[in-house]
Amino acid sequence: xxxxxxxxxxxxxxxxxxxxxxxxxxxxxxxxxxxxxxxxxxxxxxxxxxxxxxxxxxxxxxxxxxxxxxxxxxxxxxxxxxxxxxxxxxxxxxxxxxxxxxxxxxxxxxxxxxxxxxxxxxxxxxxxxxxxxxxxxxxxxxxxxxxxxxxxxxxxxxxxxxxxxxxxxxxxxxxxxxxxxxxxxxxxxxxxxxxxxxxxxxxxxxxxxxxxxxxxxxxxxxxxxxxxxxxxxxxxxxxxxxxxxxxxxxxxxxxxxxxxxxxxxxxxxxxxxxxxxxxxxxxxxxxxxxxxxxxxxxxxxxxxxxxxxxxxxxxxxxxxxxxxxxxxxxxxxxxxxxxxxxxxxxxxxxxxxxxxxxxxxxxxxxxxxxxxxxxxxxxxxxxxxxxxxxxxxxxxxxxxxxxxxxxxxxxxxxxxxxxxxxxxxxxxxxxxxxxxxxxxxxxxxxxxxxxxx
Amino acid sequence: xxxxxxxxxxxxxxxxxxxxxxxxxxxxxxxxxxxxxxxxxxxxxxxxxxxxxxxxxxxxxxxxxxxxxxxxxxxxxxxxxxxxxxxxxxxxxxxxxxxxxxxxxxxxxxxxxxxxxxxxxxxxxxxxxxxxxxxxxxxxxxxxxxxxxxxxxxxxxxxxxxxxxxxxxxxxxxxxxxxxxxxxxxxxxxxxxxxxxxxxxxxxxxxxxxxxxxxxxxxxxxxxxxxxxxxxxxxxxxxxxxxxxxxxxxxxxxxxxxxxxxxxxxxxxxxxxxxxxxxxxxxxxxxxxxxxxxxxxxxxxxxxxxxxxxxxxxxxxxxxxxxxxxxxxxxxxxxxxxxxxxxxxxxxxxxxxxxxxxxxxxxxxxxxxxxxxxxxxxxxxxxxxxxxxxxxxxxxxxxxxxxxxxxxxxxxxxxxxxxxxxxxxxxxxxxxxxxxxxxxxxxxxxxxxxxxx
Lengths: 453, 453
What we know:
The structure is a homodimer of 453-residue chains. The first copy, chain A, has 453 residues and is α/β, with parallel strands linked by helices. Chain A has 3 domains: 10-91, SH3 type barrels (Roll), CATH 2.30.30; 104-310, Rossmann fold (3-Layer(aba) Sandwich), CATH 3.40.50.1170; 318-431, 3-Layer(aba) Sandwich (Rossmann fold). Helices cover 23% and strands 23% of the residues of chain A. Chain A contains 10 helices and 23 strands. Chain A has helices at residues 10-18, 131-137, 162-177, 192-202, 226-239, 329-337, 358-366, 388-395, 406-417, 423-431; strands at residues 26-31, 34-40, 51-56, 61-65, 71-74, 104-109, 116-118, 125-127, 146-151, 182-186, 203-205, 210-213, 245-250, 258-262, 266-268, 277-279, 286-289, 294-297, 309-310, 318-322, 342-347, 370-375, 399-400. An 8-stranded mixed β-sheet of chain A has the order 9-6-10-12-13-14-17-18, with helices on both faces. A 5-stranded antiparallel β-sheet of chain A has the order 4-3-2-1-5, with helices on both faces. Chain A has a 4-stranded parallel β-sheet with strand order 20-21-22-23, sandwiched between helices. In chain A, β3 (51-56) and β4 form a beta hairpin. The radius of gyration of chain A is 24 Å and the shape is elongated. In chain A, 56% of the residues are buried. At the A-B interface, α3, β20, α6, α8 and α9 of A face α3, β20, α6, α8 and α9 of B.
């Protein structure tokens, strides 16, 4: 069972327990002449600080310092009319102290679990809380950086489209233009890997890191990984030596370290674990220790900071088609007939599709579609010269995707096709390592160690 | 560099080296009045035996014992007309000795790399050699079982379709009806996992194990894993206590052990490594040590031998559709409009598709298609009650796929839809654990250990 008073200790915990209060209950905290009424939130801050966190009805969180004269009581559900604006934003207390000597880091919120809260009536999670809220829930980040926070979107990441990638690229670029040292993008985890790849291609050069971060449990659940991940992401944005788009998420199930994964090599590999994000066919870029404010580089082959260079724009007439036994040329035809510009095939093994589909693939190429081959094995490298099927596919005009993730190849092709539709140029760019999406050197340890009893 | 005389030692090796011969060269071996001319093959047999293996022009391999009076010489390329039938099959020597007291095991060859040879002119691999050949190349298997070998297909596994699954099911059933203790199916590795799942559903009960086996390097390459895997598969067929369809392949890069993976839980996870096959969300069933003729059970939850019960037949109007950011309802519509009967969605995270596609999914369900949700994370379990997107998909009639691999869910739906099209019955069967395709208990160690520097 999860602790019903997660993060609370000492005197505050004793008082809350006496009142039979649990996280999620409605409470009223009275301090001097001020009344803070709302939902009791879990605490993720450094241990030992005696603070009660309440989510007000206007959506803001307040942290009220527990000191003589402060009292807390159970509150009833508010009447409908009293829901909004009962307390205005300016009573939020205490505002995080922004140290002027810290590097400026911008947080752009796009939605997802890290910015979501549980609906207490239904138990479901909806994207709701703001970046400002995050700062209040995780005040430690203000010790690492001078934080500025904005909401760009408030959507689940399964609803992200190439158009949203363009919006994120623009918002991040704007922050760097205004002098940010690094940018944190909070994002739903479902398609965070795709967005990380999109940013990797769109930013030809960056003045600092872009850290995408999310959480696997919502930020007002006691078991949430939101705080740890956010602290790690802010640390990366403020201090990392690389200037790439990375995903920063838990490295293991505990709160020891997070990992910064290169945006073109990262994939969500588990539906629910905190360490769901893993690098495939490449080592992670760095281990990140937020408690010790330390970043340990694993892979020194990273991009250094440079001038901001943006090439924004993604073609949304690209599809990812996964091979399965029995797939027919008809499936390829459907995309050709609908006017698609490109297809990333997720073939089997070294990069194969059934021989019965090759005629349809040939036709797709003839009609001007760019067709790229990747492997559903995920690990390893496409090699289409070994078997006759592969050689026939190459002859049909298929572009081999090397060791690229199918997801990354999809994003890359979408990005390329927004720049050029010239077949030779598309091929040249697909075969060029633009953002570390291909790793020429696979060492044995990159293949994970599986459980064999 | 690979050993150009792989497997040869002692006196034979010295003689071959003196002649400057390498595996792949054309040789002539003269023994008494008999002449064996063909390609020098690598040796995979037990060390110490002095035998030269030659692939004759008729496709058969001979193993000629090195003894006084035998001599070997380099041969020239044969004239075109002399290629076939230069030596008839009956000179093959020595025929593997079939011990009558060993358990009867049938080998059914369907093609793929394990039954392929390199075309020396082009360097490409084509499926060509027969099951009989395998027995000659790997004579040790006759020490484990009384082998009977047949060719069913000679195709690459990327060309396998649900119709081929039906043919394999029928052939395997026939072998059991004729008294086989176990059956080995040699198969290309690309779609071996899918076929293993197909056999798992089609055999409701089995008298013994069905071991699918393949190789990642062709059997006449020095680095081939064909011999080791075949020995392990024959051992499983002859001795394993479980009566399930399993994939038997290398467990690590050396020749220490193979693994027997449950057919519904196995996936090819690497394009080229020998240990490409891994169990996902479940432990492998057993470790297999062919050198020691020993099988070590890892997971005791296996099916015991029983009467043969076959329910053959797969619906080929099922598709596997992988989600990517920007996918539209149009993609779902295309399959509905083409008269498909079922769709397995490979969604993101806990089982999500974009909210913009839900109307199309609703329509698919209304038009009678079965729609099943799985996760492209591969690891973990679908849970569609956590987020509003998931609940909307459930309300639209989507069937959650639990912790099933997308590939296994695809095969299962194809098998179910060949039995019934009744929506309630399809749902009931999809939610029922029919062949170990769902594992109710995920222990932490099932998630592999990734390289973190």
